[in-house]
Amino acid sequence: MRKLLGYILSPFHYLFWALLLLIFHPIQWICFNAFGYRAHKWSVDALNFFLVYTNYVLGNTVKFTNKQNLPIGRPIIFIANHQSLYDIPTMIWFLRKYHAKFISKIELTKGIPSISYNLRHGGAANIDRKDSRQAITEIAKLGTRMKENKWSAMIFPEGTRSKDGSVKPFQAGGVATLLKKCPEALIVPIAINNSWKMVRYGTFPLNTFISMTWEVLPPIEPGKTPVEELMLQAENEIKKALGQ
């Protein structure tokens, strides 16, 4: 029944997504070129607010829980498991006050209205997975921007999306580079649950009536702890929150 409803409702969901990306592309351009970073960020936040609530067209729900007293004005590295592309708008919207920037594939910087523009101009680290030197350099630049601007970063250390919700081993390289440039950053794990079910059948049809959750877990002070241990701690905390 859910799959059948997906065939009916998915076109409406995609229509709203496409309209929002097209509408906000010139809004972003005007905000960035006429008013600078803060106005551009406002436009990106507004876009992601609307993208989050397109989930409800499918009968899906979004619950974001943050019971942590996270500092404002201190760089944070948000570490999350990755289940689908729909993880991202929710994190951008609900964590907007932390100025979190993504580490993303360089391929996404071209051809996608609004999204590509934001990746090029919003402060993200756009990496070429086939060029390790370029990737490390871009992540290091993000670490420097975090330190200078008190920004944060969002990273999916599994390296790829999970197709069944199981958490894959976390890789330490990206976080190690960020901490090298911004050692004062706080590490905050986020457990994402059930967004993989939305794309269980692929990009079409999208699944319907799924309860998706995002939970911010207790922060981890890096100190002098080896990055590999920090990543294992974050991985285990996320698995625990997901019951894995």
What do these coordinates show?
The protein is of the alpha/beta class. It has a single domain, classed as Glycerol-3-phosphate (1)-acyltransferase. The protein is built from 8 helices and 7 strands, in the order ααββαβαβαβαβαβα. It has helices at residues 2-35, 37-53, 87-94, 115-121, 132-149, 173-181, 195-198, 227-242; strands at 61-66, 76-80, 100-105, 125-127, 152-155, 186-193, 211-216. It has a 7-stranded mixed β-sheet with strand order 1-7-6-2-5-3-4, sandwiched between helices. Strand 3 (100-105), helix 4 and strand 4 (125-127) form a beta-alpha-beta unit. Helix 5 crosses helix 6 (173-181). It is globular. The two termini are 28 Å apart. The model has no long low-confidence stretch (mean pLDDT 95).
Domain tally? 1
CATH architecture: 3-Layer(aba) Sandwich
- Percentage of residues in DSSP E strands: 15-25%
Total number of strands? 7
Helix vs. strand class: alpha/beta
Q: Supply Rg.
A: 18 Å
Q: Give the SSE string.
A: HHEEHEHEHEHEHEH
Task: Give the SSE layout.
Layout: H1 2-35, H2 37-53, E1 61-66, E2 76-80, H3 87-94, E3 100-105, H4 115-121, E4 125-127, H5 132-149, E5 152-155, H6 173-181, E6 186-193, H7 195-198, E7 211-216, H8 227-242
Parallel strand pairs: 1-7, 2-5, 2-6, 3-4, 3-5
Antiparallel strand pairs: 6-7
